[in-house]
Amino acid sequence: MSIEFIYPEFEVIRNESRCIACRVCERQCANEVHSYDPERGIMVADESKCVNCHRCVALCPTRALKIVKSDCALRENANWPQSTINEIYKQASSGGVLLSSMGNPNPLPVYWDKILINASQVTNPSIDPLREPMETKVCLGKKKQEIRRDENGKLVCEMTPQLELSVPIMFSAMSYGSISYNAHASLARAATELGILYNTGEGGLHEDFYVYGANTIVQVASGRFGVHKDYLEAAAAVEIKMGQGAKPGIGGHLPGAKIVGDVSRTRMIPEGTDAISPAPHHDIYSIEDLRQLVYSLKEATEYKKPVIVKVAAVHNIAAIASGIARSGADIISIDGFRGGTGAAPTRIRNNVGIPIELALASVDQRLREEGIRDNVSLVVGGSIRSSADVVKAVALGADACYIGTAALIALGCHLCRTCHSGKCNWGIATQRPDLVKRLNPDIGSKRLINLVRAWQHEIKELMGGMGINSIEALRGNRLMLRGVGLNEKELQILGISHAGE
Amino acid sequence: MVINAKNLDHKALNEKLRGLSGDITIEECCGQRFIAAGMSGCSITINGVPGNALGAYLNGADIIVNANAQDAVGDTMNEGRIIIHGNVGDATGYAMRGGKILVKGNAGYRAGIHMKEYKEKVPKMVIGGTAGSFLGEYQAGGIIVVLGLEPGGKNIVGSFPCTGMHGGKMFLRSDCKGVKFPSQVTARPATGEDMEEIRELLSEYCQIFGWDFEEVFNAAYTVVTPDSKNPYKQMYVHN
């Protein structure tokens, strides 16, 4: 073997006493790992193609398969882990930029796991959500700073447009193209059933999904794919994408190979053309320019829809958010550095941006100090993994959370992190019709509904335990949080005390 | 129908415009932004100078400006026609996806960035004078024509035209000596076949602005096209 050879990362372990050579694994693997050897009458595997997506493991009728990480390793070296060495091999042989998928997998601190939630004991009794009403509904949008009355003393109830959510969770932006038609159908239907919203991402809105418009956020990114009057009018809200947590500072790039059929039509670009979203919006160089885009969208939608500005969590995020809050935007969405993606350069995904927990805490604090917190609602994403993360985010000041990776996992994603190959065996990050049909939107939407309803119940239980019966009373309530194993600076930024204080 | 824009802000002016059809004239326009955003089914003549983002997301309306226009004319426009009897500012026709923008004079920086096309929807932009730097950056489709009529000593186009271009076609009425194009595009003299593509467009242009068609059409043009619709394909290695 040459120096280019990299020993396969995974091994396919087949229990020969169980395998009946039914060839299901062969048919299910788009990576073509499995094949049948007719001479010997057995199944064989080329593990070099295996991405450990567990499709064959899950579908093997006799449970004859498992995938394990190979123990064929180079000499241990804490400074030079095998993954780093392999990356150098890949680049030395190709000269290419490393491309990865899904969120940052590196062991950087997850602050959610270092924050603990309070509960009532003795005083301020806790509430049982099974027996007493609990409110998880939130409204996103600009809030009035003062109460006004007309000449007869009646309240003036003019409100800027609001998004009403039954629970403070939305499905984050994933474009049609990066994920499949059936994945979009599942998200759209689940959002409608749940009374929440999903987000089209920057790939336009498929004509079949206009009926879900009341539960749809449409995105306007630098490439402006699929953006036109009907698209803007179909939606409940419009999101301007300035940045994304997985790849702050760079644009999007859907390879031409994925621009086929309906994806091409929905994006309004010819088949086979790369869909390139430039890194910046070339008409936005300042908060004033951003304000211009915000207001052009408001004019085009007659001020009936909230405008969201999405940015990646980066250094100085508090100052950036302060600017956005003055741009006329109704909602700021912040995406942390663990946010997922269909494809991002590895180095950017793993090294650029900051944790959403710190970004959220500093933004909420800054907007409060400047007296403009009610100008906007705050939505955070970039690895919200459970209902506990949602509760912690709300207590740190978020109005709602975006979930992307968690929603995909509910749909069957096994986090093999090879979305960029376009060969997703679970029918999510692919446009191949034979793979797309593996995801049944009836089942997919049901699973998403189950997930969000389960989280909603857990949120109610956690709130009840704190003696809080309305999510509004939890928002920004940092007294409900304590840190463990955090230093003074981290506690200061998070605005919470240490456990035991 | 005549609307006097004096003392109206952009919100009030657009409110008056919405739902109107037929011929509308806006008098005393003075910098109001977003005029006719997303509008269709009417023809609007503007006297005075409109503000930024004129005709953003325009969806079929006709707009005639009898003066200069400012930045972001026809941002993401889908259908319709914008005629400017003067110069335009920066970022004209950003991400335009259909319709026409016809400018008598010069365009500022970043005209025609990320114009795109799909099947019969092919946006077109004609600039009579010169264009600033970054013309047609990321162009993904559509036709951009710069005529360089009365260039006033300026180059027909500024620095860095066509960076990242991966679709569409650009016509420059010049031999383009001294213009530096990026490596992933081809700039060559226009053929008769190329010129036929813009004959009708230029005839319309000359009629509107009173130019002699033969003089404008029968000149040396340079055509710029991308070498690949996948210019960045080779840059990645799967990890």
What is the spatial order of strands in the main beta sheet of chain A?
A: 9-19-18-16-15-12-11-10
Please tell me how large the radius of gyration of chain B is: 18 Å
Q: What are the segments of chain B in which pLDDT stays under 50 over at least 5 consecutive residues?
A: none
Q: Within the CATH hierarchy, at the fold level, what is the topology of the domain at 87-235 in chain B? A: Pectate Lyase C-like
Could you tell me the mean pLDDT of chain A? 95
**Main interface pair?**
A-B, 47 and 51 residues
Largest sheet of chain B: 11 strands, mixed
The quaternary organization reads as heterodimer
CATH superfamily of the largest domain in chain A: Aldolase class I
Residue share in helix of chain B? 10-25%
Share of helical residues of chain A: 25-40%
Give average pLDDT of chain B, whole number. Answer: 95
How far apart, in Å, are the first and last alpha carbons of chain A? 60 Å
CATH topology of the largest domain in chain A: TIM Barrel
Q: What is the rounded Rg of chain A? A: 24 Å
The CATH architecture of the domain at 87-235 in chain B can be given as 3 Solenoid
Task: Write the topology of this structure.
The complex is a heterodimer of chains A (about 500) and B (about 240).
Chain A: E1 10-14, H1 24-28, E2 34-37, E3 42-45, H2 55-59, E4 65-69, H3 82-94, E5 97-100, E6 115-117, E7 138-140, E8 163-165, E9 169-171, H4 181-194, E10 198-199, E11 216-220, H5 229-234, E12 237-241, E13 253-254, H6 261-267, E14 275-276, H7 287-300, E15 307-312, H8 317-325, E16 331-335, E17 344-345, H9 346-351, H10 356-369, E18 377-381, H11 387-396, E19 400-403, H12 405-411, H13 433-436, H14 441-465, E20 481-483, H15 488-494, E21 497-498
Parallel strand pairs in A: 9-19, 10-11, 11-12, 12-15, 15-16, 16-18, 18-19, 20-21
Antiparallel strand pairs in A: 1-4, 2-3, 5-17, 6-20, 7-8, 13-14
Helix pairs in contact in A: 4-14, 8-10, 11-14
Chain B: E1 2-4, H1 10-17, E2 22-30, E3 42-49, E4 59-65, E5 79-84, E6 100-103, E7 124-127, E8 140-146, E9 167-172, E10 185-189, H2 192-209, H3 213-217, E11 222-226, E12 236-238
Parallel strand pairs in B: 1-2, 2-3, 3-4, 4-5, 5-6, 6-7, 7-8, 8-9
Antiparallel strand pairs in B: 9-11, 10-11
